[in-house]
Amino acid sequence: MNRIQLPHSEAVQKCWEDWRQASQTSGADLADALERTTPALSAAIEELRKEARGELQKREDVWRPMALSLAAWLPEAKKMLSEADVISHLKSAEDWIRTTATTIRNERFLPIKQQVKGIWDLLRTRSHVELEDITFEGKSTSRHVSLNVTVDGTQGAALGVMSQGELHSLALALFLPRATVETSPFRFLVIDDPVQSMDPARVDGLARVLDQFAKGRQVIVFTHDDRLPEAARRLGIQTKIIEVLRGEGSLVELREVRSPVQQYFEDAFALASTKDLPKIVVERVIPGLCRQSLEAACVEVVRRRRLERGEPHRRRLLGRQEPLRPVERRRRQGVQRRLPQRPRRRRHSEVRPQRRHDRERDSRTLMIPVADYTPEDLLDAARTLLARPDARTSGVWPRAAAHLLRQALEESLDEFWKARLPVLASTSMRVQLTSLPTFLANSDAAANAAYTWACLSNACHHHPYELAPSDTELRAWIEEIERVREEIVRALSRREPPVP
To answer: Whose CA, among 7, 103, 301, 394, lies 20 to 30 Å from 184?
Structure first.
């Protein structure tokens, strides 16, 4: 305990020493000494008593509120200690409530879980991952969903064994039932690009799943991938497909699309119905669009027939995974080999008269004369389309210009090969572009020609994840073709003899 130092404590100590020394005398001296020192000692003690009383009061004023609080808390503390066993029971009850709440939550989630498993079965196709159970685990801020999956009967974690496409499919399977519960006030679904990283078989399953949910609510899907619209058309699912078109100045327009076959035909009709359309566009672009429409129709028919026969999706695109026969391989490489034909023998020497079906075939043949255009004419026509976009050709003129530019590049190469190496003029464009660096002094120009031709070929078709080429892209391709033509003219001006 710390000693308290009071102001009069030294005075009391001094008076006490004087009184003690006086008490050591005897007789008359003792009486005189006591009479002299006792009043001073008594007065000093009285002053010290007053100081001690004041200091005690000061400390009591500080301690009393705390003491009162402690006095009030002490009975409750004693009662709490006496009821320690009850607290342990309360904690057990709290744990039981949390466990029961998780169990109730899992039971309420059971109908949704069954839907999730059903959707996963449609989306997983030939995946070896089985979704065994979905449970809620944890408590407080550490709650999470546990996905128990098996791979060929072996337990595993979903994030550790599933591919990106499988994870997207699982996320959709979890999202769709939760978003379409009966108590939800929203009668629509908006999904952004759900087919990413999915193979074609999963896209078919997704189309069927969305068709089920579309029976009770409106389903809106944003995607650049045309596999989902194609799957909906092939499976006979009623859908409304709207294409977002990017016009000049990044103006966005909407156009309803039904099928690639009809889309190419509508593009051709839009160009044909445009007033004052240059003749070169009619003769060079519209036939190409009609050809693409026929190709798209053939692809759809072949794809549908192969899928109906049970062939897997990976082999459905015209057998691209199958090995090529030697004749097809040579054709792909640009070698046009003709097999020797046996001379036909006629039974009579007179000329065979024309048969009736031959006459009917000739009468049905429609010959459309097509004028010859130079590469400069084709480039000028492309510039005209870029300079005067028409509202009816919105979304069509970029691909029409790409058709003209690709033909301008091909006509330029055709003129070059006829002058330098005529045998290459009848080969495929891939062979011509591969051979071009050998004959041009500027190898960069030859490489840019191959790259530009590939870009233009890609821009002439509708592709997933790609919009129509912009005005800036088309003008850059025009400049590149002009540079290639300058190199061709420079090469031809050297007047080198044709290669035999």
So the answer is: 103
- The string of pLDDT tens digits covering residues 441-484 is 888 888 999 999 999 988 887 665 566 788 888 899 999 999 99
**113: its two tokens:** 């879980």
Q: Specify the DSSP element, H or E, that contains 20.
A: helix 9-22
User: What is the number of structural domains in the chain?
Assistant: 2
Q: What are 90-119's pLDDT values in tens digits?
A: 888 888 888 888 888 878 888 888 888 888
SS3 337: coil
Judging by DSSP bridges, how do beta strands 241-246 and 218-222 pair with one another? unpaired
In the listed set 81, 113, 134, which residue is the last one of a domain according to the structure?
A: 81
With contact defined as beta carbons under 8 Å apart, do 165 and 198 qualify?
yes
Query: Is residue 38 located within the same domain as residue 145?
Result: no
Q: Are residues 135 and 232 in the same domain?
A: yes
Nearest in space to 170 (alpha carbons), one of 147, 139, 153, 138: 147
- 185 in a structural domain: yes
Per-residue 3-state assignment (H helix, E strand, C coil) for 106-144: HHHHHHHHHHHHHHHHHHCCCCCEEEEEEEEECCHHHCE
The sign one gets for the Cα dihedral 14, 18, 19, 23 is positive
Pair type for strands 252-257 and 154-157: unpaired
Beta strands in 12-128 (DSSP E): none
Distances (CA, A) of 428 to 102, 328, 378, 424, 441: 68, 13, 21, 8, 22
Q: By CB neighbour count within 10 A (0-12 exposed, 13-18 middle, 19+ buried), where does 421 fall?
A: middle
468 Cβ contact partners less than 8 Å away, ≥ 6 residues apart: 245, 246, 395, 398, 399, 459
Tokens of 138: 């944890």
Taking each helix axis from N to C terminus, what angle separates 471-492 and 443-459, rounded to the nearest 10 degrees? 140
Are 34 and 165 part of one and the same domain?
A: no
Residue 321: C-alpha distances to residues 218, 324, 331 (Å): 38, 9, 17
Same domain, 71 and 146: no
> Inter-axis angle of helices 28-82 and 84-123, to 10 degrees?
40
Tokens coding 112: 């949704």
* DSSP type of residue 427: S
Q: Is the pLDDT of residue 360 over 80?
A: no
Nearest-angstrom CA–CA distance, 222 and 309: 31
52 found inside a domain: yes
pTM reported for the whole predicted model: 0.52
CA distance 432 to 328: 18
For 369-390, the DSSP string reads ------HHHHHHHHHHHHHS--
pLDDT in tens, 404-443: 999 999 999 998 998 888 888 888 888 899 888 888 888 8
Q: Report the phi/psi class of residue 355: left, alpha or beta, with left for phi > 0 and alpha for psi in -120 to 50.
A: beta
Q: Which of 81, 116, 136 is the last residue of a domain?
A: 81
The domain in which residue 140 lies consists of 100-239
**Distance from C-alpha of 243 to C-alpha of 314, rounded to nearest angstrom:** 27
